[in-house]
Amino acid sequence: MKFAHAVFVAVHCLMATMFTLCALGLLWIAGAKGWEAFQNGLGHDEMFKVVEALGILAASVVALQIAQTILEEEVMRDTHISGPTRVRRFLSRFLVVLVIALAVEALITTFKASQDTDLMLNASALIGAVGLLLSGWGVFIHLNTSAEKLEPEAMEDAKSEDSKVQDRK
Questions:
Q1: Do the record's keywords include Membrane (predicted)?
Q2: Is 41 left (phi over 0), alpha (psi -120 to 50) or beta?
Q3: What pLDDT score was predicted for residue 18?
Q4: Of 58, 76, 94, which residue is a domain's last?
Q5: What is the pLDDT of residue 167?
């Protein structure tokens, strides 16, 4: 069992490394697109390049946050996600990144829709998706905090794990 656990930890480390490398690649691409826009002056077309660079930068942040979450939750904490507090924290980290990425993508699509009205439906759908995600997340947190009241020891376990992670950093 310890061997299988070590293999899973190694695979999680590999996944976190791959997400980090992808994040760095996306950061490079975003920087190149932004630099290209500033090199050509700041005209109307360059505005879209800057906004596109922002979208790529947001994707880079998403990849980096996922890598950090994998490392902290699966490698450093070395815990099993079973209590309501741990589940809420784990899912919230992903949802924060996802909602921000979708909101930035909605902003980019809205800018593009100002030139191409065929994209207006896409922009509206993305904005609606962000709203639905936020609403669903709010309901999840509300229901989860109710479950935490039934299991106060899970909150204490999560807090003790947090102090262990802080000590390792």
A1: yes
A2: left
A3: 96
A4: 76
A5: 64
State the average pLDDT over residues 99-112: 84
Q: Which residues form the domain of 30?
A: 1-76
Distances (CA, A) of 99 to 15, 62, 163, 167: 22, 10, 28, 30
Confidence of residue 90 (pLDDT cuts 50, 70, 90): confident
pLDDT confidence tier of residue 58, bands split at 50, 70 and 90: confident
Task: Give yes or no: residues 102 and 169 share one domain.
Answer: yes
Separation of first and last alpha carbons in the chain: 28
Nearest to 105 by CA among 120, 126, 79: 126
What's the domain count of the chain?
2
Q: What is the CA 88 to chain-centroid distance, rounded? A: 15
Tell me which of 76, 99, 133 is where a domain ends: 76
Q: Tell whether pTM > 0.90.
A: no
Q: What mean pLDDT do residues 89-99 have? A: 81
What would the DSSP string read from start to end of 72-112? IIIIIS-----SHHHHHHHHHHHHHHHHHHHHHHHHHHHHH
